[in-house]
Amino acid sequence: MKSALLWVIMTAIVCGLVLGILYGLVGKVDFTVRHLSSPVTSFPSTWRGFSSAQPCNAASGATVRQCAAYLAPASSETTWTMRTTFPEYMVALGTIVGSVLFSFFGGIGIACLPLGLIFSFIRRPKAVITHSQYIKEATELGKKARELKKTADALHQEERSGNKGRKWRKNVKVVEKELLLLEEDMKALEEMYPQGEKAETAWALTVLGYLAKLVLGVVGLIVSVAWVAHIVIYLLIDPPLSPFLNEVFIKLDDVWGLLGTAAFAFFCFYLLLAVITGAMMVGMRLVFITIHPMKWGGTLMNSFLFNVGLILLCSISVIQFCTTAFGYYAQATAAQEIFGHTLESLRGIKYLYKYNLFQYAFVIFAGVTFVYYAAFGWKKKKPSGRLVLSN
Fold first, then answer.
1. Ramachandran quadrant class, 132 (left: phi over 0; alpha: psi -120 to 50; beta: rest)
2. Phi/psi of residue 37, each to 5°?
3. How far apart, in whole angstroms, are the C-alpha atoms of residue 371 and residue 111?
4. How does pLDDT run across 38-53, given as a tens digit for each residue?
5. Which residues cross the membrane (predicted)?
6. Of 75, 227, 250, 345, which has the fewest Cβ atoms less than 10 A away?
7. Where are any strands of DSSP class E within the chain?
């Protein structure tokens, strides 16, 4: 307990020093502005000396008039430097960490989320199996369960002996993955052979559930395609081809005051769902990433904490991403002031957002995942016959 507390205190001190040094050195924003000037003159009795081509006052003998930004020469541009507040700087650093996770997990999840629901409908049980088929499948799953238990007991013995190296952790993750697949097969078997007095009702609800997944998958696919298309049309192409979803939100606001805001919130929340789906999907395919599934009535506390932490890290990035993507709709808001002007002008990190690096990464991951998952994701992954553990 004492060593853990000391470790936490030392970590907090080191992090505080690093953040303080970074803030002191590069915690400034550089705004590109135009230096405009105009001499003072008495209030004129007539306005004949002013026109759209010459809207500025001129001192006696002066030939350069720079009070209009549109007419001012390029030499009038200058850099206005000011120090940002420490909370804004912390938000900016958190946004970078969250943007890396968001670009990776969100790009993967925005393709896997709708396709997973659609493929779940495709892999659905078509009919109720017979009792003999149920016994056969249950016996096979029982054998796999006993093998998993035997392997888990062996790993538990290694843990007690203090042998918790890299190979042990890798083997634990392999067992966790196989256990998750086994639980999914058990659930599928129960769906194919409903039991009890309300077996027919349970089967009807199962069919309706898969139909709901199909509908949600189609809706999600439309939203995912709209997101990717909007990023390409509005963010990656300069100048933007169209405001696209910005115009949709504005027209929805014209129909009812909060309808556009609700649609804006839905698209933001959809990105968070995509992040969780992407983290789950990557964990299922990469051994070095721990799986943290969210299941109704069966979610472990560490999975709750992991997903909550992931949402908190990515939520700031989602806000920044949506503020940039819906800049036309969110103009003149506090979010755009923080995540648009300040973040994109902060020293050291402004180039990450100036050149849309995270947006490019998001679209690339989404495109590659869509092709891969559409080609291979519809195949149901079965638990392996025998566990292959690292020696």
1. alpha
2. -150, 155
3. 9
4. 666 667 677 666 666 6
5. 5-26, 89-122, 214-237, 257-283, 304-329, 357-376
6. 75
7. 28-34, 77-83
